[in-house]
Design a protein that fits this description.
Blueprint (H helix, E strand, L loop, with lengths): L5 H9 L9 H8 E5 L3 H16 L3 E6 L2 E12 L2 E16 L2 E22 L2 E8 L3 E4 L3 H16 L6 H8 L4 H4 L14 H15 L2
Antiparallel strand pairs: 1-5, 2-3, 3-4, 4-5, 5-6, 5-7
Helix pairs in contact: 3-4
């Protein structure tokens, strides 16, 4: 899982790294998706299942008639430091005839925690200091594709794509869905052939260590 949160660690260490600029047309293309032959309620329910499958214990969900908003908090320990942050999934849906058009807005904010020297009446010591909060919209198109593919899988009982398969497919970290994630398969679904093979290979490597 180390390579999957490399991008998040890099963001935290850089502190002020500028996100890749995307045009409005690019953002609309990757954040908008049409699900055919379904309803808003079915799509939003599927979206919630995708979020909870990622890491149900660390997700808080808020509901509205036309949207589901999920917030996922995390804490990552590094050498002599740590980082904490959150990913926000704002998933909205509108009915258009027999189809549902959705918009997914993904954002990430993070803050580093490092040892900070202190001097007081009792002498020198150490405390935990926090750095500035950095935040940005997520502009990785592959992460939006992974979310939409998983919603489609829930709606149509299609094979489920794991984080390992998503990484193998495009090399992107997909931290919002995959950083320290449980990566569970929703009840009633099965892994895709590629995900099943990658899982079997990973289990074999662990046994051979």
């Amino acid at each position: 899982m180390n390579r999957m949160f490399g991008a998040t660690v890099a963001l935290l260490l850089s502190g002020c790294a500028a996100p890749r600029h995307i045009t409005r047309a690019e953002w609309l293309q990757m954040s908008t998706h049409t699900f055919s032959g379904t309803t808003v309620e079915e799509v939003l329910t599927a979206g919630e299942k995708v979020m909870l499958a990622c890491d149900g214990s660390d997700f808080s969900i808020q509901h509205a008639p036309d949207r589901v908003v999920g917030e996922r908090r995390y804490l990552v320990y590094l050498v002599l430091a740590a980082s904490m942050g959150r990913f926000v999934f704002d998933f909205s849906a509108t009915q258009h005839g027999d189809d549902v058009v959705t918009h997914l807005n993904l954002t990430h904010s993070a803050q580093g925690i490092t040892p900070t020297p202190t001097v007081g009446p009792g002498g020198a010591g150490m405390t935990a200091g926090t750095g500035p909060v950095s935040g940005a919209a997520i502009s990785n198109a592959g992460t939006y594709e992974l979310f939409h593919a998983r919603v489609e899988a829930v709606l149509k009982s299609l094979p489920w794509m794991t984080c390992a398969e998503a990484y193998a497919r495009d090399g992107d970290s997909h931290d919002s869905l995959c950083l320290n994630a449980a990566d569970e398969v929703p009840e009633g679904l099965t892994l895709s052939k590629r995900s099943a093979q990658l899982k079997a290979d990973a289990n074999k490597r662990r046994r051979n260590r």
